[in-house]
Amino acid sequence: MPISDESREEFALRQKPLRDKIEEYLKKEKDMLAVMKRDSAGVEYTKLLLCEDMIYLATLYINISNMSVQILDTKNNDALNDARKVIYKAIIYLEEIVSNAVDIPYSDLAPKVARIANTPVEKKFYIVKKLGLVIQLLADAFGDNSKWKWTFVEIRGRFAVVAKNLVDMKQASKDYFDPRSPDYDNTVLYVRLIRELMDSSASEYRDKYELNTRRLDDMRMAINFLIANRRIAMILGDNEASEEIKKKALVWKEKMENDAKTGASK
Question: With contact defined as beta carbons under 8 Å apart, do 21 and 53 qualify?
């Protein structure tokens, strides 16, 4: 059914405040990046702020598409693609603070986390929850049959990694078992979420390998997520989970090697 001029005019009118806000925040980002080039003091905290701004921008783009569905009865793919791009930027800002390494010794990660030592675990958890929510909102807006289906495996994987790397695991391993700690509740919930995200990303990369690419690097990534999750289990003294993950990783590694030998992978 053709879209009427009246509907187009209504959509243009109703999206304008959102577009104006988007332009405002994009200009703000540009200005903040310019300041960081001149002065690197506290740059990690600035990137945390930029990450939150990108999350907000993503919600605006998603709202524009939702508005398009409501008024024009069609998704606005341009807005959704813009949302995808700013979500990547949000993740990249976090990666620049704490790295994008899936499995990294916490002794290597500690100096990076120390750069944002004044950011409470509650605030980190809040940012992670917001980012996870907007990623899910975007995936839902695109739909199950979107051409971006497998791209979300990478997005969620990179999200899982920065969520993990933001944590001061040395302190978290103490607060996790200390109900008297003011950070106890947030630490327990945050660490549980990280473990779920790492397990989910391992499974998603395995599915991507099996059902889509047959690329060995996808299977290796799946195994890396398992190993990283085992590292968390070991730090927490969860020996049962550690052994289960170890066994699974060995099975997956054996399958990967067999697929490589038989030519079942690329």
Answer: no
